[in-house]
């Protein structure tokens, strides 16, 4: 296991009530993605270091994308199928995490129908499995369910008003799929008493992310890793929060193991503009990259239609004592170190 990832798994384990996981069985969809794979690494470390005897069932579409350490682990079982197909699993399952969903703007733009289906039909199939197994269920949702806020709203809270999402924009299949899946989670909880959880992630980055999927942070990292200038095609004035992956996974485990409520935002404290993010990454390039702004009014490649709105993290901080460990600069520094070590 990569040194950076291993350090992250230890930090997550030390900050959570993991004793209750002894001998449990996890079923995780999207196990080759950044979120699913990190959860898998945490469970593997619990088994390797603390002999927790956790059974790990991983759903993937292509098992060859799995890390060999995970693929060959005796505690891991692989189910190679699309989440839009019904799952048939023998034996007990204690926790189900539905993390399968395209994260690439390019895929969301070019395959909006499939993107929607991964969230909606995938949630339907995994929720039916959770109902059958009487498992605790956690859905990985997104900041995008909040949509575009009204002019007088700048912060989104879990109990606050949602913004607008236009269902006639194909790219919004991602947001609409997440919203429908959330409704199914709440419905399954109210109708059948299933223990369902929802985490809404802000922009998340770190080891395991693709640096070629078209997201802003991916493009910037790709530039820095290849000693290229960061070329921005706008003034970069949009504000966002960027959450380092281990902080996000730490929050996910807190919600899964310790929460009493259902829905929680997970986002960093530090709000920065896209231009400020570019400047941070330039500073981490050892002067091998510089920032160049070339204004271009052409349409962004599948970028979100939502430009404003920051997630409040007050609820998870207050109720679950969660707080981000890494600043944006430190988190991206770790990510760059990982990418260089892995020759990505």
Overall pLDDT level? 92
Biggest beta sheet summary: 7 strands, parallel
| Total DSSP helices | 11
* Portion in strands: 15-25%
Task: Work out the radius of gyration.
Answer: 19 Å
Biggest sheet, spatial arrangement of strands: 3-2-1-4-5-7-11
* Portion of residues within helices: 25-40%
Distance between the termini: 15 Å
Poorly predicted parts: none
Tell me what the structure shows.
There is one protein chain. The two termini are 15 Å apart. 45% of the residues are buried. Helix 7 packs parallel to helix 9. Strand 2 (55-60), helix 3 and strand 3 (76-80) form a beta-alpha-beta unit. The protein has helices spanning 3-14, 34-50, 68-71, 105-110, 112-133, 173-192, 216-225, 245-258, 274-283, 314-320, 328-341, and strands at 25-29, 55-60, 76-80, 95-98, 136-142, 155-156, 196-201, 203-205, 230-232, 239-244, 263-266, 271-273, 291-293, 310-311. With 344 residues, the chain is α/β, with parallel strands linked by helices.
